[in-house]
Specification:
The protein is α+β, with helices and mostly antiparallel strands and 462 residues long. Helices cover 50% and strands 18% of the residues.
Length: 462
């Protein structure tokens, strides 16, 4: 199973640094604890060597060949179960060791040793072999040193043992390890915190660049502004070059669309004018088909303009409140004889992420359509939804559209009532413009009694 790498550069750097810090501190803790323990055991080893030397000096053989241990000045070895011991053993014919003498502190017991100890001692003749055991005379942990030596007047070597209670050394080692690990833990936390601060500060220019690009995307700026380190400045410059290129592309598209509109609309206008001067079946066909062609040209040119602006309209931001206020005043005057009242509400900070002309066309078609069909009331509510999106609801108190006909109402050229003047393109124009901006149009029933149109559009935040 392959682990997916983190998508966050900050987390990746912090986790990588934290991993190395933890590994380094763990190794440091292990090394320091081991060195402390070895140092303490070496001190015990020095004491044990002194005890062995003292026993060696005090050891003699009688004329009968018996081992005699003279006076030992270390009082602890003469006190029962004092925690400090010595012992002397002789090798036997079968390769084992036979204890021949021991300190009073042993109380008749023996220091433990492994079966291969004699081989180890013979391999390091004259040197001291140290080992630890947890099976002391009173069950205490011991540090034991053993050395094989040859005494004067005796060819057979003798093994001397010395042992000391290591309880205090183990306790000191545990205390040192506890203090060390706590100190390393605090150091590790401090280092990770420092790495976090360092990474955040070091990557701050990237965050600033991200915010600058987001400001362009959300319509709060036309270019990436700010000064960046030399490693990042080329990226900001390239983004600005890309924005300039996109703007130039949009301008060229607008020019081409305008030229095409002029090239097509003028001949169509001439055809309509010529056909309008005469009556007859041919002239009627020419007028109808020319009108259809003009509607088609308007439709496709509008769609091309909207798609170009939506795709490349970075930095464009249009206040919703201003557009609604202008359209409400204008459409109330258009339907003044009908007494239409337009009640609209929108936050001052709400802005459409796109061009003003497109928002005017979207709202204008919907509010005009509502004013045409309403009895008297039109209600428009606009507000933010999820981040980067807004919802606009246009309702009226007219007859509405039956549920089974709502999908057809969004199709180009569909008219719900042939007796009402119009081309049937209003809702289709709105749907095309909204879709060009990545939004959605939904038709429903209003609680006012008429049609309810819900728009989902991109918004500029902040």
């Amino acid at each position: 199973m392959r682990l997916r790498p983190s998508r966050s550069l900050t987390r990746r750097l912090i986790w990588l640094a934290a991993g190395w810090i933890c590994l380094a501190l763990i190794l440091t803790g292990l090394v320091l604890t081991s060195l402390f323990q070895e140092s303490a055991l070496r001190r015990l080893g020095s004491t044990l060597n002194d005890t062995i030397d003292e026993v060696v000096v005090a050891a003699t053989f009688t004329p009968e060949g018996h081992l005699f241990i003279g006076e030992i000045r270390d009082a602890r070895t003469e006190r029962l179960l004092s925690g400090k011991y010595w012992m002397v053993a002789e090798p036997t014919a079968d390769g084992s060791l036979e204890v021949v003498a021991g300190s009073e502190s042993l109380g008749g017991s023996q220091l433990t040793f492994s079966p291969d100890l004699l081989d180890r001692l013979q391999g390091a003749f004259g040197q001291t072999v140290s080992y630890s055991t947890d099976d002391g005379p009173k069950g205490e942990p011991l540090r034991i040193a053993a050395s094989i030596k040859t005494l004067p007047g005796r060819e057979t070597p003798i093994v001397f043992f010395a042992g000391v209670d290591r309880t205090d050394v183990d306790a000191d080692t545990r205390q040192f390890a506890t203090v060390t690990w706590l100190a390393l833990l605090m150091l590790g936390l401090g280092l990770v915190a420092a790495v976090f601060v360092q990474v955040r500060i070091g990557l701050r220019p990237l965050y600033d660049l991200d915010r600058a690009i987001a400001a362009v995307h959300l319509g709060r700026s036309n270019r990436v502004e700010g000064s960046y380190p030399r490693e990042i400045q080329p990226l900001a410059d390239q983004v600005n070059l890309l924005l300039d290129h996109s703007q130039e592309t949009v301008e060229r598209q607008r020019t081409h669309v305008g030229n095409l509109a002029h090239a097509l609309k003028t001949p169509l206008a001439v055809m309509l004018a010529e056909a309008g001067t005469k009556e007859g079946p041919l002239q009627d066909i020419v007028r109808r088909q020319a009108q259809v062609m003009r509607d088609q040209v308007e439709h496709h040119l509008r769609r091309a303009r909207a798609a170009a602006r939506a795709a490349h309209g970075l930095g464009e931001s249009t206040p919703v409140e201003e557009v609604l206020d202008e359209l409400a005043v204008m459409i109330e005057r258009v339907f003044e004889e009908k007494g239409v009242e337009i009640d609209w509400r929108a936050p001052e900070s709400l802005a459409f992420r796109g061009e003003r002309q497109d928002l005017q066309e979207i709202f204008g078609n919907l509010i005009e359509n509502a004013g045409k069909w309403c009895k008297r009331r039109v209600r428009v509510l606009a507000g933010p939804s999820v981040p980067g999106q807004m919802v606009v609801v246009v309702e009226d108190d007219g007859p509405g559209i039956p549920e089974e006909q709502r999908d057809a109402a969004l199709k180009r050229g569909t008219r719900m009532d042939e007796a009402t003047p119009g081309t049937g393109l209003g809702l289709s124009i709105v749907d095309e413009l909204v879709r060009a901006y990545g939004g959605r149009v939904t038709l429903g029933a209003s609680d006012l009694g008429g049609l309810k149109v819900v728009l989902e559009l991109p918004s500029s935040e902040g």
